[in-house]
Amino acid sequence: MTLLRDPDLIREFPDLAPRITGLMLASPGFAALYAEYEIVDREIRAIGGHTEPGQGDHVRGLEKRRARLREMLHAMLKD
After folding, report:
1. DSSP of 38-55
2. 77: in domain
3. How far is CA 6 from CA 11, 16, 27, 65, in A?
4. Within its chain, how far is the Cα of 72 from the centroid?
5. Domain range spanning residue 64?
6. 3-class SS at 7?
7. How many domains does the chain have?
8. Mean pLDDT, rounded, for 19-47
């Protein structure tokens, strides 16, 4: 596993960068959530603004999932 391939969380929470790195190494649960966050984020970025008819609900679902994952990761960082 490469740590923080896309350091989106570090850009979003720069004051928590050491904690993010530490949890990536020490917490399999955090690492799994972060990996899922990366997958969803990559999919959203790949779609970009190029949605086909009928994809709107799918993209909104991905965006909601990414927001929930971000909230869960942030909660773990604040513990």
Report:
1. HHHHHHHHHHTT-PPTT-
2. yes
3. 10, 15, 18, 17
4. 10
5. 28-48+56-79
6. coil
7. 1
8. 91
